[in-house]
Design goal:
Shape: elongated
Strand content: under 5%
Radius of gyration: 16 Å
Order of helices and strands: HHHH
Structural class: mainly alpha
Number of helices: 4
Largest sheet: none
Number of domains: 1
Length: 106
């Protein structure tokens, strides 16, 4: 994968993978992560979901890989980030409900 392909991936559908990978390291490197309020964790997840794709697209613009146009550069990044945040949040909440049902029935 070239740097240009990575930036394209990071500013679109790859944001889910990148956020998951990054937060895995945050949990390991930042011991107080588990003690943080759920709202703070969700805010960090939301901001990372938006900042990483937009920063990747802007880095692609600076590197000359693409033109800076809100409709074709920034807006798709915001949509991908919002989708990553939404699916991650609903996925997490769904898994916690499944886990709590299993522990309550056991």
């Amino acid at each position: 994968m070239t740097f240009q392909e990575f930036l394209t991936y990071a500013s679109g559908p790859g944001i889910n993978v990148i956020i998951g990978f990054a937060l895995t390291f945050v949990v390991e490197w930042f011991p107080q992560w588990e003690d943080l309020d759920k709202k703070i964790k969700r805010l960090v997840f939301f901001l990372a979901s938006l900042i990483i794709p937009v920063a990747s697209a802007l880095l692609g613009v600076v590197a000359g890989y693409q033109q800076l146009d809100f409709a074709t550069t920034i807006w798709p990044c915001l949509v991908a980030g919002f989708v990553a945040f939404t699916t991650g949040t609903f996925g997490y909440k769904g898994m916690t409900k499944i886990i709590s049902r299993k522990t309550n029935s056991a």
